[in-house]
Amino acid sequence: MSCPFCDRTSIDTVWASRLSLAFRDRYPVSPGHTLIIPRRHVATWFDATREEQGDLLEAVNLLKARLDAELQPRPDGYNVGINAGEAAGQTVMHLHVHL
Asked: Is 58 helix (H, G, I), strand (E, B) or coil?
């Protein structure tokens, strides 16, 4: 089975670093709903290296600030979520952080 997050031709990147990238969710829960993924295919947070984990967390902060500037009205709050494994609700088996 192919990974939809590894097929970068279908992803409209809104932010990128050496280790990760971000794009808007195709089925957003709320305006600005963004997914942040490592470039390397790993299934869960626990499979990522500390360097990848740090890069993903840095992206959360950078993208939150960007969304604050872009969205009107400005969001009243944010959810940051990671599902690790099918039993936890993960549907795409490529680590992704929801913002």
From this structure: helix
Place of tokens 């960007």: 66
pLDDT of 10 reads 81
What are the tens digits of pLDDT across the range 75-91? Answer: 999 999 999 999 999 99
Answer yes or no: are the C-beta atoms of 23 and 12 closer than 8 Å.
yes
Q: Which of 24, 54, 22, 26 is nearest to 39 (CA)?
A: 22
Q: What is the DSSP letter of 64?
A: H
Our CA angle for 46, 17, 83, nearest 5°, is: 30
Instruction: Give the active site residues.
Output: 96
